[in-house]
Design a protein that fits this description.
This protein is mostly beta strands. It is built from three helices and twelve strands; from the N terminus they run H-H-E-E-E-E-E-E-E-E-H-E-E-E-E. Strand 1 and strand 2 (56-69) form a beta hairpin.
């Protein structure tokens, strides 16, 4: 009985949301507006992806840290199945592959735009090509060391705005903290089939930390090539 009481008290301590009066698409727009107004932000989390082709599964998982300030300053670091550091220092775009035998590339931001191919954390495109957004209930995510409640929003986008138009069906589900105006978890499911071949792809990004308008260390957007690292030449 004592153990049951402890569990109940623990559940009661988890904050809950009142019914949100905003429409789901209005909530997404508020997140976009908050992201657009931020001078900088940083985040940490985990991204896992799984591809199933005719019953055979391939899985990848990375942990990431990312910090962004404006359009030309970024730091992106991954560990796990991918080990890469990307730094934009305002002028140059550096990409360093930390695996054994890896090297680094350097190019100007004018040639290689900052953040290209990195699509976590900025939340600026949540309403691009949006067709529908629907509340689906509530869930909980471990965030900042605590169990955080979030609102589930399922969306549909124009086929060319999010993934390749060859996908038969794409479903995006966001777990949102409406007070902080951030996404705590995003899950994307894509299904492709032509009769003989069926492919199912899922990708889940879970944030464990997210901050806006904070004091970033002075060396955040500085890249120093490690001793022995080789500068690689592009094609």
């Amino acid at each position: 009985m004592r153990f049951l009481i402890i569990i109940v008290l623990g559940l009661m301590s988890i904050p809950t949301f009142a019914q949100d009066d905003r429409s789901a698409d209005a909530l997404l727009q508020e997140i976009v507006s908050a992201a657009r107004a931020a001078e900088n932000w940083r985040a940490e989390g985990v991204r896992s992806s799984e591809t199933t082709l005719n019953g055979t599964k391939q899985r990848q998982e990375i942990r990431f840290k990312v910090a962004v300030q404006g359009p030309s300053r970024l730091r992106w670091e991954t560990s796990g199945d991918d080990q890469t550091t990307v730094v934009c220092d305002g002028t140059n775009h550096w990409t360093f592959y930390r695996q054994a035998g890896g090297g680094y590339y350097r190019s100007s931001i004018a040639v290689s735009p900052c953040g290209e191919g990195i699509d976590v954390g900025d939340f600026l495109k949540l309403t691009d090509g949006l067709v529908t957004a629907t509340y689906m209930g509530r869930d909980h995510v471990q965030f900042a060391g605590a169990l955080q409640e979030c609102l589930l929003v399922r969306t549909e986008y124009e086929s060319t705005s999010r993934m390749s138009a060859t996908h038969n069906r794409v479903i995006h589900t966001f777990c949102i903290d409406p007070a902080k105006r951030i996404v705590l978890r995003q899950r994307t499911e894509a299904f492709v089939g032509d009769g003989a071949t069926t492919v199912r792809m899922t990708e889940t990004t879970t944030y464990v930390r997210y901050e806006r308008d904070i004091a970033l260390p002075s060396d955040t957007f500085r890249f120093v090539a490690p001793n022995g690292a080789t500068e690689l030449k592009g094609p």
